[in-house]
């Protein structure tokens, strides 16, 4: 038996012993997701037990090194763990922007001191992070951001406003892009880390067309951000004024995630829609079939993309293509699901629709091609970096 | 298996790419034979050259002189054929006929496979009976006669029908027209009495026939596989041909796309390169995405077919349909972005549009295969 087979057996046993049955059900609503943080509470004992077992094993961040709270798994082992979790439908023990966004940035750009402190906190779900990128005037044109940190020697005084800050009202800390040099567009941004409880930070939720939202407006009014949190723990990632490099690196991650390149969200819908609908119009059936063709093809693309990334064969701008195609496909998916569901799916508040899930999800997907860089921006990037079109 | 070419496959791709760009180019092959009104629509010299490189026997096992490779490898050659619009009997002979014959008796194999390996023989496959692909209905009949059969009926869209040394014909030996069972495949030699071809040149300047069988007498040894048991082989032939046509379609799409992207980088209007205009950039980038996704589903389907997976059929239909969408977009955007010059015979972009049209129709168009995706998915 190969080492990997042994690992699979052990993983299977460990999951069997540690992942409670309640944690093997699909995520139905917000409560089912554990985000960690200072004020976190568990929905039930099963959620708590699953989380604590995962932390102890390093399985909240299995591929991170052990000294930073991970399990130090190789890519092949991490894949086995993912497969085994998928096999039993295990929920992620912890969801967090720290894991998805800040962690990869710190692993790549962080100092040893930052890694020891922040990565361990993230892995143990102690601090809940939010991401401060977009501003009212700077969406896809992110580099035009205006939030300014004035250099006061051992600290900055930050003033400005962020928007679309997911869960800012629930987050403990923020990783935030702040302009520290007004003369230099690209090389005048610093990637700062600071406490949301700092004086001068306030948040306001934004109600969306889907009737709810994780998004907030976030305001900074003379917020004092120290330049260091101790020896070898600067309050910024990378170098001062070079935060754009970090931001770009992270946007790549975010696009892969939103695109569903990780294998999620690439499924066909025709069979399920036809089963659940009272009657399927032949023209709708044809549209569903055409959609399924695209979904099957996109699923293959996602697989190919991941295979190619592993061996460095993928074009560096390929995540932009995946994001573009994946989000457009997902919008189409929900349009068709609304059509197939008929009037039932219009119900905004009913038990049958679990509180209007179909229509709220449908509306939510409209943001897919806006957040993390709009489809138009993705097409610009493809034009410039892959097709090498003039002046793009 | 990862969804990219391994080292051996990458080497084959390099060989095929070089050879097809040099020897199979539009100027040397498609335009050359078209402008001479060639009755075959392709050059036999190139076919022999392809044999020297081993291409023609890619899907034929080593015992019969072939390379014993799979659909990924056949697809590599087909993609380069598509990219250069190279007219050749590769798809009909090395993919469709070779698959049918490979499922026949040793006698059948011995009689017909060497001709493919040597690049001497051209075989056609006669399946369709009407203007739209519908292999679940087969009316052409072969009735028992002596120790052989008497074949009657008509086949349409028989590519290379008149040039072929032998036709693989799907006929009914029992049951009703729409029955699944009762199909038999026959190897019908070129000079069989009672067979007549109405040859027509198609839009892509390839040659096809309406072929009539008027009581064609066949010996028992013309049967490929089992009498009444031909449906299974026919399905294998269709799988091979469809994923092959999809691979060639990806080549057509990439050829048209590359030509178009190059063009908008050079053509000036209003004092600017037209490739600087965002309206064109976005369309080109969208096209790129579609073509990349089509490539992915093609290699996925090829690997599933080579691995004998039960998911292969669904993915083959998804691939054939997706390629039709992507390649169709590539040639339409190609002609439009070339502007007036794209409408001229002198420029090659229109040739891509014509070839795509013919390939789309071959073995089921986008609607046929999208419908099949739905049916195979249970709706």
Fold and architecture overview:
The complex is a heterodimer of chains A (392) and B (379). Chain A has 392 residues and is an alpha+beta fold. Helices cover 42% and strands 14% of the residues of chain A. Chain A contains eleven helices and eight strands. In chain A, helix 4 packs across helix 6, helix 6 packs parallel to helix 9 and helix 9 (318-341) runs antiparallel to helix 10 (357-365). The longest helix of chain A has 29 residues, at 282-310. Chain A is globular and about 70 Å long. Chain A starts with a helix and ends in a 6-residue tail after the last helix. By secondary structure, chain B is of the alpha+beta class. Chain B contains eleven helices and ten strands. The radius of gyration of chain B is 21 Å and the shape is globular. The A-B interface holds A 268, 270-271, 273-275, 280, 285-286, 288-290, 292-294, 296-298, 300-301, 303-305, 307-308, 310-311, 313, 321, 324-325, 376, 378-380, 382-383, 386-392 and B 2-4, 261, 264-265, 272-273, 275-276, 278, 280-282, 284-286, 288-290, 292-294, 296-297, 299-301, 314-315, 317-319, 321-322, 325, 366-367, 369-371, 373-374, 377-379.
Helix-strand layout with pairing:
The complex is a heterodimer of chains A (392) and B (379).
Chain A: H1 3-18, H2 45-57, H3 75-88, H4 97-109, H5 112-123, E1 129-132, E2 148-151, E3 155-166, E4 173-179, E5 189-195, E6 201-205, E7 215-226, E8 236-237, H6 243-259, H7 270-276, H8 282-310, H9 318-341, H10 357-365, H11 375-386
Parallel strand pairs in A: 1-4
Antiparallel strand pairs in A: 2-3, 3-7, 4-5, 5-8, 6-7
Chain B: H1 7-23, H2 26-35, H3 44-52, H4 71-84, H5 90-102, H6 106-117, E1 123-126, E2 141-145, E3 148-159, E4 166-172, E5 183-189, E6 195-201, E7 207-218, E8 223-224, H7 230-264, E9 268-269, E10 272-273, H8 278-306, H9 312-338, H10 349-361, H11 366-376
Parallel strand pairs in B: 1-4
Antiparallel strand pairs in B: 2-3, 3-7, 4-5, 5-8, 6-7, 9-10
């Amino acid at each position: 038996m190969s080492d990997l087979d042994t690992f699979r057996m052990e993983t299977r046993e460990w999951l069997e012993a540690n992942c409670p049955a309640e944690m093997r059900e699909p995520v139905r609503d917000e409560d089912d997701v554990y985000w960690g943080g200072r004020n976190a509470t568990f929905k039930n004992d099963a959620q708590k037990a699953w989380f604590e077992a995962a932390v102890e094993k390093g399985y909240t961040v299995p591929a991170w090194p052990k000294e930073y709270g991970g399990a130090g798994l190789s890519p092949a082992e991490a894949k086995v763990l993912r497969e085994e979790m998928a096999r039993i439908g295990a929920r992620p023990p912890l969801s967090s922007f720290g894991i998805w966004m800040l962690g990869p940035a710190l692993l790549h750009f962080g100092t040893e001191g930052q890694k020891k402190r922040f990565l361990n906190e993230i892995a143990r779900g102690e601090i809940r992070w939010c991401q401060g990128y977009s501003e009212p005037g700077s969406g896809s044109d992110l580099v035009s951001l205006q939030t300014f940190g004035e250099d006061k020697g051992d600290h900055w005084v930050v003033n400005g406003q962020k928007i679309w800050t997911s869960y800012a009202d629930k987050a403990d800390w923020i990783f935030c892009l702040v302009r520290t040099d007004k003369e230099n567009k690209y090389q005048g941004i610093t990637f700062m880390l600071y406490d949301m409880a700092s004086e001068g930070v306030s948040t306001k939720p934004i109600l969306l067309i889907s009737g709810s939202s994780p998004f907030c407006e976030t305001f900074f009014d003379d917020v004092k951000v120290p330049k260091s949190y101790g020896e070898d723990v600067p309050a910024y990632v990378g170098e001062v004024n070079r935060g754009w490099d970090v931001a770009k690196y992270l946007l790549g991650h975010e696009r892969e995630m939103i695109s569903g390149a990780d294998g999620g969200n690439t499924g066909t819908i025709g069979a399920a829609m036809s089963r659940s609908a009272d009657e399927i119009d032949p023209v709708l059936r044809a549209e569903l079939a055409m959609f399924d063709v695209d979904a099957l093809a996109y699923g293959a693309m996602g697989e190919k993309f991941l295979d190619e990334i592993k061996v460095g064969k993928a074009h560096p701008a390929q995540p932009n293509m995946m994001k573009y195609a994946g989000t457009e496909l997902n919008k189409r998916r929900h349009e068709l699901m609304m059509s197939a569901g008929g009037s039932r799916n219009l119900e905004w508040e009913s038990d049958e629709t679990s509180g209007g899930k179909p229509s709220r999800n449908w509306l939510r997907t409209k943001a897919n091609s806006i957040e993390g860089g709009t489809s138009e921006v993705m097409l610009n990037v493809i034009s410039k970096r892959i097709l090498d079109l003039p002046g793009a | 298996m990862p969804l990219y070419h391994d080292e051996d496959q990458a080497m084959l791709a390099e060989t095929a790419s070089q050879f097809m760009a040099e020897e199979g180019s539009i100027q040397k092959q498609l335009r050359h034979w078209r402008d001479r009104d060639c009755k075959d629509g392709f050059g036999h010299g190139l076919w022999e050259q392809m044999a020297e490189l081993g291409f023609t026997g890619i899907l034929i096992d080593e015992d019969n002189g072939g390379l014993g490779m799979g659909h990924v490898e056949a697809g590599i050659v087909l993609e380069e054929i598509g990219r250069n619009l190279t007219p050749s009997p590769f798809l009909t002979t090395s993919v469709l006929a070779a698959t049918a014959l490979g499922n026949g008796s040793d006698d059948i194999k011995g009689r017909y496979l060497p001709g493919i390996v040597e690049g001497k023989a051209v075989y056609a496959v006669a399946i369709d009976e009407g203007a739209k692909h519908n292999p679940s209905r087969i009316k052409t009949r072969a009735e028992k006669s002596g120790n052989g059969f008497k074949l009657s009926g008509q086949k349409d869209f028989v590519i290379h029908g008149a040039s072929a040394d032998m036709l693989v014909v799907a006929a009914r030996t029992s049951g009703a027209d729409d029955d699944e069972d009762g199909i038999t495949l026959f190897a019908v030699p070129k000079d069989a009495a009672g067979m007549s071809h109405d040859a027509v040149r198609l839009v892509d300047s390839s040659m096809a026939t309406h072929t009539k069988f008027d009581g064609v007498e066949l010996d028992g040894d013309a049967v490929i596989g089992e009498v009444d048991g031909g449906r299974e082989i026919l399905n294998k032939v269709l799988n091979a041909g469809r994923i092959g046509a999809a691979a060639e379609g990806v080549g057509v799409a990439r050829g048209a796309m590359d030509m178009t992207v190059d063009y908008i980088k050079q053509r000036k209007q209003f004092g600017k390169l037209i490739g600087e205009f965002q309206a064109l950039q976005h369309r080109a980038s969208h096209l790129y995405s579609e073509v990349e996704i089509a490539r992915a589903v093609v290699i996925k389907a090829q690997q599933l077919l080579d691995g004998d997976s039960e998911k292969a059929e669904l993915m083959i239909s998804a691939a054939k349909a997706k390629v039709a969408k992507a390649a169709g977009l590539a040639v339409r955007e190609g002609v439009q972005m070339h502007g007036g010059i794209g409408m001229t015979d002198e420029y090659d972009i229109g040739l891509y549009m014509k070839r795509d049209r013919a390939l789309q129709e071959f073995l089921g168009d986008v609607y046929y295969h999208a419908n099949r995706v739905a049916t195979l998915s249970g709706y």
